[in-house]
Every structure is written in structure tokens, then in C-alpha cells.
Amino acid sequence: MNEEFIREEQGWIGQDITVLETVGSTNQLLRERLTRENVPPGAAILAFEQTQGRGRSGRNWLSPRGQGLYASVVLYPPRIQHGGILSLLAAVALTDAIREVTGLSAGLKWPNDGILDGKKYSGILVEAGTTPILWAIVGMGINVRGRFGADQFPHAITLEEAGAKNMSLESLWQSIAHHLEARYERWLVEGNLSVIEAWRSYTVTLGKTVVAQGSLGTVTGMAEDVDEQGRLLIRQASGLIPVSSGEVSIRASDGSYA
Ligand code: BTN
After folding, report:
1. Mutate to test the pocket of ligand 1, among 45, 50, 57 (most ligand atoms within 8 A of CB)
2. Can you give the pLDDT at residue 2?
3. pLDDT tens across 7-51, in order?
4. For the chain, which terminus, N or C, has the lower number of CB atoms within 10 Å?
5. Residues in contact with 102: Cβ distance below 8 Å, sequence separation at least 6, in sequence order
6. How many whole angstroms separate alpha carbon 142 and alpha carbon 149?
7. End-to-end Cα spacing for the chain
């Protein structure tokens, strides 16, 4: 990837960009940079490989060299409560970009998993803190090239496997940065509903029976909607249960959950 090319084409997201051959985790490196210096909003780190890629819920994110896009961007949201909505916002922007660049009908599983052919091709990890000022790092991992063995990774897919051709990491990044910037600026003006409406239009979760495993335990029921904070609302006999974080599995027609 050519840093100059990327920078010239960029708005404020990705204007300050570091492209590395290999790194432990782009999220971690950006976090370390925040503790050392003033980092402009939209500063990004991209890597061709991560040796300690981090996923949600303490999992690893497999990040083999040249096979994926691994990127982190720093934002300074107005309030700390915005972590949840930012995670949906980033997922919507990523889906905008994937649809634009590949023409594939990419969808979203709550909260922010990118889905193609019922399998996960991308994930987002938002980490936030308050020192030295309120910050949020949006980390995005996209499985671009190569193949996942169906035996070992039955629920994962790459863009290539889903039918995307001649993927260029540069154009993918350009499109993500552009859409992230546009969605973020719109959100600052219009608020959460602009994000929620777009998320609803992309999701494959709503209307399905799901199992949500979160910090407060397991909730099973119909995924009815998301509220203005981006919480998933699951219908149970007792009423709607809001789930603010965790993993969701969707019930398939054969009764299995994935
Ligand atoms: C998930 O578990 O679905 C989230 C995966 C997020 C992976 C990305 S890759 C770039 C950034 N750096 C990391 O260490 N993780 C995120």
C-alpha cells in the first residue's frame, strides 16, 4: 500500500496515516501513541499483518499477512456513552464501503459483524477511554483474500470466497475512510437515529430468533429492534429485554444457531 497515494486522496480520516508491514495490534499501537502525544482526529494505522490481533470478548483476530485489511482509526466523540453507537456507525460505514467496492449485498449481524452468505467476513472492536481526553479507537478487520477451511472455520468467509474479484486494499481503505467520515459527520449533526436507520436497513439479525450471550447472562428470543443507543431488543414473554453488549447467534431453519 502506498502511503502518499492514500494520504493525497484522503479527507480528515486517514490524513495522518501509518502503514506497517507487521504489528502486534493496530488498536494497541494507536492506543500507545495516544498516551505519548497529541494525535489528530482520524489518525489511522494500517498493517498487512497482525501477530496479536484483538477481537471482541477477549478473542484473537486472525490476521495473516496480505490476506486482510487491519486498520484502526482514532475519533474524539463528544460523550463517553457513545461507544455503543460508534460501533454500529463503523459497521454501517464498513458495509457502505464493501457494497460500493465489491457490489456484494453485505449485511450486518448485531452489533457489528459483517456478513456475507450467512458467514462473518469482518469484525469491529471499539475501545474507548477518557485520558488524556475522551477518545475512541475503532479497529476494523476484514477477511479479504484466501480461503477459510470450512472444517476449521465454518462460520467465516473472505470477500474473495464470497465472489469479490481483484480486490485492492487501497481502494477498500479509501472507501472505508470516506464512508466513516461521512457517517460520523452526519451523526454529529443528526444524532443516533441516522445511524440506527442505516443499520436496520443492513441487518440480518432483526426478525430472527437469537441467543445473546452478554455480561448479564444468556437471553433467547426474537430480535425485535435496536433502540437509540444501539442496544438489541429481544422479545421475551416478560417484555423486551435490552442487550447492550455480547455475542449473538441466529437460529437457522434447521434449528442450529450460528
Ligand atoms: C471481532 O471480534 O469481531 C472484532 C475484530 C476486530 C479486529 C480488528 S483488526 C484491526 C484492529 N486491531 C486489532 O487488534 N483488532 C482490530
Report:
1. 50
2. 59
3. 556 799 999 999 999 999 999 999 999 999 999 999 999 999 999
4. C
5. 159, 162, 163, 164, 167
6. 17
7. 35
d(CA 63, ligand 1 centre) in Å: 9
Residues 131 and 227 both lie in one domain? no
Does 241 reside within a domain?
yes
Structural domain range at position 78 = 3-202
Mutate to test the pocket of ligand 1, among 70, 109, 173 (most ligand atoms within 8 A of CB): 70
As a whole-number percent, the residues of the chain with pLDDT over 90 amount to 80
* The C-alpha cell that represents 31 in the structure block: 492506543
The reported pTM is 0.94
Ligand 1 atom at minimal distance to the Cα of residue 113: 3
Angle between helices 192-202 and 169-190 (to 10 degrees): 130
SS3 157: coil
How many domains are there within the chain? 2
Q: Residues 49-86: pLDDT tens digits?
A: 999 999 998 999 999 998 999 999 999 999 877 778 99
